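Try this one yourself first.
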C-alpha cells in the first residue's frame, strides 16, 4: 500500500475566512495526494506563545517525515525570516519568530552538532527559505505568506524536494526563541508560570510532570497586584491556606504570605467535588490547574505569565 505524505496545519486564522481553505488549495495544486491534517486554526490571534505550546505538544504523535506548517505571524511581510527546521526526522515550516523553537529548547541550550555538509549527522538542521522558485509566486503577498511561501514550500518538501533545494543553511543558534521564564527548583518548591490556557479554561504551567512524579504536592498561586481604581473581588472558589497547611509550612511564612490560595494535587479532575480546584499532570505532561466542571481561568482571573509555586508535602 502506498503511503501518502502528511502535512499538518496550525494557524490563528480561524475558520470564518477563506485563508485555511486557500492554503489547502495551494498544497493540493502541487500534490493532490498529500494528506492534510488540521491541528488547529483557533490559536488566539497573534499569540505566538500559544501556537508554540500547541505545536511542541502535538508533533510527536505523527509519523516521521511529517511536514508541520505553522503560521502565527504578526511580523508577516517584515524582515523576519521564513524557515524550515528539521528535527527528530520531522519538518517544521513557518516564520522565525519563536513559534517553531519550543520543540528545540532542550537542545538549543546545549552543544549542537550542526553539520552543514550533510543532514544525517545533524541533530538540528535549519534552512532559510530564500529560493523563490519553490514559492507559489516570486512576489509573495506581504500579508499572506502562509499561502505564497509556507504552504507551497511545505507541499514541495512533502513531495520529496530536498532541504538544500528549498533554501540555505543557517545556524540553529540564531533562531528566534520566545523569552518565556523557565521553571526553577528552589528551597521552597518549584517556581514556574502559566504558559497556556486551553479551551476548557485549564491553566497549563511550564512545570513538567516529571518534576512532581511520585510526590504529594500543592500548587500555590501568587497574589495579584491590586488595581487602584477597583477593589478586587474575593475569589470564593480559591482554597485559602488552612491552619493545617500553615502548620506544615510554618518555617516558610514569607512563602505563605505571598500566596492567595493553595490547590491540592490529584490524578483526575473527578478527584475533587464539582466546583472545586485541583492540580494535576495533564495529558500534555505539564502541571495544570483545573476546576472540576468549570473554567479555572475565569474563576481565578489569571493570565499567561502568572507565577505559580509547586509546594511538596514536608
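Now uncover the answer:
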Amino acid at each position: 500500500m502506498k503511503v501518502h505524505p502528511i502535512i499538518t496545519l496550525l494557524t490563528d486564522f480561524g475558520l470564518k475566512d477563506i485563508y485555511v481553505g486557500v492554503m489547502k488549495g495551494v498544497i493540493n495544486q502541487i500534490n493532490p495526494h498529500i494528506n492534510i491534517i488540521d491541528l488547529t486554526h483557533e490559536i488566539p490571534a497573534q499569540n505566538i506563545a500559544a501556537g508554540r505550546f500547541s505545536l511542541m505538544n502535538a508533533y510527536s504523535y505523527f509519523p516521521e517525515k511529517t511536514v508541520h506548517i505553522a503560521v502565527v505571524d504578526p511580523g508577516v511581510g517584515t524582515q523576519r525570516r521564513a524557515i524550515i527546521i528539521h528535527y527528530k526526522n520531522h519538518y517544521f515550516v513557518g516564520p522565525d519568530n519563536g513559534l517553531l523553537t519550543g520543540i528545540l529548547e532542550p537542545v538549543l541550550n546545549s552543544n549542537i552538532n550542526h553539520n552543514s555538509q550533510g543532514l544525517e549527522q545533524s541533530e538540528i538542521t535549519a534552512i532559510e527559505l530564500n529560493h523563490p522558485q519553490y514559492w507559489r509566486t516570486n512576489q509573495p503577498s506581504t500579508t499572506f505568506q502562509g499561502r505564497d511561501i509556507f504552504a507551497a514550500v511545505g507541499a514541495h518538501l512533502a513531495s520529496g524536494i530536498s532541504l538544500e533545494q528549498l533554501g540555505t543553511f543557517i545556524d540553529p543558534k540564531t533562531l528566534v526563541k520566545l523569552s518565556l521564564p523557565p521553571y526553577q527548583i528552589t528551597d521552597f518548591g518549584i517556581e514556574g508560570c502559566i504558559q497556556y490556557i486551553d479551551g476548557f479554561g485549564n491553566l497549563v504551567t511550564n512545570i513538567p510532570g516529571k518534576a512532581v512524579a511520585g510526590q504529594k504536592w500543592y500548587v500555590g498561586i501568587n497574589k495579584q497586584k491590586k488595581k487602584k481604581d477597583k477593589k478586587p473581588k474575593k475569589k470564593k472558589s480559591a482554597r485559602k491556606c488552612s491552619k493545617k497547611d500553615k502548620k506544615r509550612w510554618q518555617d516558610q511564612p514569607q512563602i505563605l504570605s505571598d500566596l492567595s490560595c493553595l490547590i491540592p494535587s490529584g490524578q483526575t479532575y473527578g478527584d475533587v467535588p464539582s466546583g472545586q480546584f485541583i492540580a494535576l499532570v495533564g495529558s500534555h505532561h505539564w502541571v495544570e490547574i483545573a476546576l472540576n466542571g468549570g473554567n479555572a481561568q475565569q474563576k481565578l482571573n489569571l493570565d499567561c505569565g502568572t507565577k505559580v509555586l509547586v509546594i511538596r508535602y514536608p
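Discussion: Residues 111-121, 226-230, 232-242, 245-251 have pLDDT under 50 and may be disordered. The radius of gyration is 22 Å.
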